[in-house]
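Quick check before the chapter quiz. The format below is the same one you will see on the exam, so make sure you can read both the input and the output lines.
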Amino acid sequence: MQLQDYISHFLSAPDSTWSFVSIPFAVVFMVFFGIYILIRHYSKAITLGYVVAFSLLFAYKANGVLMLLLPLTVLLSYFMTQRMSKEEGTPRLRWMWTTVAVELAPLVYYKYTNFLIDILRDITQSNFSPLSIILPVGISFYTFQAISYTVDVYKKRFTMEVSLLEYCFYLTFFPLLMAGPITRAETLIPQIKHRYHIGDKQVYDGIWLIMSGLIKKALIADYIAQYNNWIFSDPSAYSGFENLMGVFGYTLQIYCDFSGYSDISIGIALLLGITLKENFRFPYQSLNLQEFWHRWHISLSTWFRDYVYIPLGGNRKGKIRTYVNNFVTMLVAGLWHGASWMFVLWGALHGAGLVVHKLCKSKLDQLPNCWYVKLGSWMLTFLYVSFAWIFFRAPDMQTAITILGKIGNDFSLSYLQPFIETRMTWTVFVVLGFALHGVRQKHVDKLKSIYADTPWTLKLILLFVVLQLVINYRLSDIQPFIYAQF
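Here is the expected output.
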């Protein structure tokens, strides 16, 4: 009876800690995966239906009854897009805009209603009260996937026939729900239309990515978040040196948090026979902001390029319009991350940085291609990105100003030795995290190849070592996945 009671409770109760790095998910996924391996050789409909059912359970555990927005979005998006595809000319355009508006409506309501109320209250000097609204986990990601499908069908970039079950799989696929990568129909749909083979390479690559993700997210990001949170909660209580360490710590934390979760997502998909595109490509190796956005959250940056920047005119309307389009796109990207002026400012900083880079590009191209120029370019890019992260993380402008003031007016290297002695583990994790980030892709591929060639016993030992490290340094209060709020 106790097992039955536990299963009943599990199926009926949402879990605020539900994520890929939670023990309940790991246990449930192993059961799910075992059944998946057994049934995947039967009909495609059974396999797809099974994964869709698990994906909806995953969404329910993360969101509770708010998960109903997901199947509702699936139905409205699918049938309205199908209706649009039968039209041409102006009626097709109207159906496209109507469908996109319907897809966006839940996101706008749940994410931006209180932000708009605050703006209206400031303008009218009234006392409007914010509404009690809970943001559904992952709503931005599946909304953007729905929009990309509608727009691609409208522009006839994606012409493949899609059944309702296939579309439901596409929009609910659980590895993508919390963190993406934002996956286009052209990437996922063709893979599920045919019986796909799960080979040894996919399994090994999948396990490798899951281990990599656990090290980044559950080990490094979650541990260093403790100190970073103290700094951004009360920067005035710490010295300028300690504030700077908190800024660099958060710069690493947000990369390890999101990149690690993406690695786990892509790794789980590989175990199921689905290949997703990489989402991070060593972004802190970038020599300029344009390169940074080619390496950071690639699925989101390409989404904004294709569905915001290019429709605005891209670089086809002259230099001034190109600069404006770049700036506006980054403002929208900032607002996507959160309904706050701090996120808008973060987007504006990146937009302005991209504009300045484009303005100076002809001069920059004349610089010699030598190590000291590359070093200077890298340092300038890294420091600017780290500076912008202050406004991304700080809860308000006063906190950001306090951090900058402490760094500028109360900085001394005399804090270095006592800081390292006091926070040795934090320092080691930060140094290790940035050092690993500096590894070249060819070296990563070589390590992955060596791992694939090792015996199963060594693979299991390595997996257990990673899990033990995570358990040893795991916080009792699990750090939430940063991008789940977006």
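If your answer matched, good. The chain has a mean pLDDT of 88.
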